[in-house]
Write a structure and sequence with these properties.
alpha+beta
Length: about 60
């Protein structure tokens, strides 16, 4: 399944990562370029999503 999550803040990032962990192909969208750069580099600023979980989701290709 393909999933799009608009907004990668405190509300959007946790379900985006969880969907990737469940095997879905996820596209996360955010208008904040700095936030997108940090997430793409594997740096999570959301307490519920560790950087390790984020990196695993990114590496899965989900």
């Amino acid at each position: 399944m393909r999933t799009v999550v608009a907004g990668q803040g405190y509300v959007g990032l946790p379900p985006a990562v969880r969907a990737a962990e469940a095997g879905h192909r996820v596209i996360g969208y955010d208008v904040d370029a700095h936030r997108v750069q940090q997430l793409a580099a594997g740096h999570s600023y959301v307490e519920d999503v560790t950087s390790a979980r984020l990196c695993a989701a990114l590496d899965s290709g989900g």
